[in-house]
Amino acid sequence: MLHIPSWKWLSFRPTRELVSGNPPSRPCLPAVEQLDDRLMLSTSSIDAEVPPPLSGDTQILIGLLKGQLGVVSDELSALKLAGDLKLDVHKFTESFLKIDDVLNKFGAAQLKQDLTERKIDKTIADLKIEFLKIDSLAGGIDSESGGSLKFVLDSLEHKATELIGLLNSATDAGNLEHKTELNYLKVADSFLKLDGALLKIEEDAALARKAGKGQQEYLVIKLRDVLVSSLKINDVEVQKQLIGLEVATLRLLQPAGNFTGGVTTDGSTGDVLA
């Protein structure tokens, strides 16, 4: 593990309130009470206990994917809220896709035991850029109308920060055979692309556009890619965890109600069915 400053102090979105000397605002109670079930689920872990350090490649992979699940949950909620507020949903999506890619690359570097000081610095810089963009996109809304969005964006920043810290503190990485390591990296990449497909469909929903047949077919392909890459892992228990994470990822989209591509999963096997 490389020595880096504690992630607890790091804020990727320096707020205007801190610059001006005023205390940062928090969403008023009515705004928080308006949060729907999915949003409350996505933000409920802010004050959760810090998980134990990850040890070994399997824990690192599962930790990365579980962390990304929480991040994407917040991103989907933020897109819905941004759409309600008539903000630039597409630019939010672009930043979220970049954030997901940065987190994935950081996890992949840890799996390959190739996490250098330079890569850590680049990760910090890239995330700061995207959260500054997000801050600019949401900066014009007031606490009463946009409190819910600011609340979920705070949660997103927190989860991204915690995930980077968790991955950086991991130990015993890089002990897999080369073929197995490649399979782990393919799994991580397939989940990243699945997350991207969900974000694009949620963007369409936020903009009151029906997801086109092409996007629905793309989502089905990404679901199958996750399944195929997961089944290449020889450990059955790891396979079960990966398929469970795939199902959990797909369920994040269900509250939007806009995906009608006929994707279902077999309750007994977890297989994705078209």
Label this structure with key terms.
274 residues; mainly alpha; disordered N terminus; disordered C terminus
**H/E series, N to C?**
HHHHHHHHHHEE
Topology, number of strands: 2
User: Mind summarizing the main beta sheet?
Assistant: 2 strands, antiparallel
**Low-pLDDT regions:** 3-9, 13-47, 256-274
How much of the sequence lies in strands comes to: under 5%
Structural class: mainly alpha
Helix content: 55-70%
Largest beta sheet: what is the strand line-up?
1-2
Q: Give the rounded overall mean pLDDT.
A: 80
Total separate domains: 1
Instruction: Give the overall shape, derived from the CA principal axes.
Output: globular
Helical stretch count? 10
The CA-CA distance between the termini, in Å, is 43 Å
Q: Output the radius of gyration.
A: 19 Å
Fold topology:
Layout: H1 16-20, H2 29-33, H3 37-43, H4 57-84, H5 89-111, H6 117-138, H7 143-168, H8 178-206, H9 213-231, H10 236-251, E1 264-265, E2 272-273
Antiparallel strand pairs: 1-2
Walk me through what this model shows.
The chain has 274 residues and is mostly helical. The chain has one domain (15-273). It has helices spanning 16-20, 29-33, 37-43, 57-84, 89-111, 117-138, 143-168, 178-206, 213-231, 236-251, and strands at residues 264-265, 272-273. A two-stranded antiparallel sheet has the order 1-2. Helix 3 (37-43) crosses helix 4. The relative contact order is 0.16. The model is unreliable at 3-9, 13-47 and 256-274 (pLDDT under 50).
